[in-house]
Amino acid sequence: MELSPAPVPAGRWADLPEDIAVAVASRLQEADVCALGGCSRSWRTACDADCVWERLFRCRWPAAAAEAAVASRVQGWKALYMNQHRRMAVAISNVVEFVGSSLNNGSLESEYYLKAIADLALIADIGFLDVQFFLFSRNHSAIINLIGLHYSISSLHVPPTEVSKALQACQVAGRKVCVNLLKLGRWFYGFRLRDEHESRKISLNELTMSEGAEVLAILNRGAVHEVFRLRVSLADMDK
């Protein structure tokens, strides 16, 4: 005869010593800390601990941590984290809105694409987690995802393998963009050669691999050597 397992005493997790509960919360990421804090009053207390949010702040915005440490004596690290998160949301949303207003039938000219990259670089303290939060969202188009990908690799110098993992975690790795290139014909002995048109369709995940390096290099050069447009493939707009 098999014995049934002993029932777990009610309130066992809520009865954890505060230091242990804080230690558990200190090993979690933002979303998990917020979710755990909604489980009970004792967990909310543990998840609101200053040390929990100080670690999250320092991991996400290391360059801003020194200045924030002074302000934390008055506001607390959780309030500082939330304020910085909102500031990043507003700043990056301005870039997203600029791209949206610059689209022409789903296409983006090279000058606007590169301006979006440059505008991201002007945002103080922006990091890879900010890109994941605000640019790798499925609520945005693949072009916005691409801008976040390109900025992470070229400006933040995040290894492509890490960018690939983030794209997969955000469920946008399979999205595709179509890069249309127009190479203006060169002059040759007084005659102008024909313009060359080329179209390359590639997934965001492929752009983090060796075959995507050439495409990213073209995007980085912009209209200096080529004139190009970016457009989301019709087959991917329903995803």
Structure description:
Pfam families: F-box-like (PF12937). One of its GO terms (biological process) is protein polyubiquitination. It comes from Setaria italica. This is F-box domain-containing protein. The chain has helices at 18-25, 30-37, 41-47, 50-60, 65-75, 77-102, 110-121, 128-134, 142-154, 160-169, 213-221; strands at residues 107-109, 176-183, 187-188, 191-192, 196-203, 227-232. The strands form two sheets. The chain has a four-stranded antiparallel beta sheet with strand order 1-6-2-5. Strands 3-4 form a two-stranded antiparallel sheet. The chain has two domains: 13-48; 82-236, no CATH class. A hairpin with a 2-residue loop joins strand 3 (187-188) and strand 4. It has eleven helices and six strands.
Describe the SSE topology.
Layout: H1 18-25, H2 30-37, H3 41-47, H4 50-60, H5 65-75, H6 77-102, E1 107-109, H7 110-121, H8 128-134, H9 142-154, H10 160-169, E2 176-183, E3 187-188, E4 191-192, E5 196-203, H11 213-221, E6 227-232
Antiparallel strand pairs: 1-6, 2-5, 2-6, 3-4
Q: How many separate domains?
A: 2
Largest sheet, spatial ordering of strands: 1-6-2-5
Radius of gyration: 24 Å
Average predicted confidence as pLDDT: 83
Strand coverage percent: 5-15%
- Structural class designation: alpha+beta
Largest sheet: 4 strands, antiparallel
Q: Which geometry do the CA atoms define?
A: elongated
- The helix tally amounts to 11
| Low-confidence runs | 232-239
Order of helices and strands: HHHHHHEHHHHEEEEHE
Strands, count:
6
Terminal CA distance reads: 53 Å
Q: What portion of residues is helical?
A: 40-55%
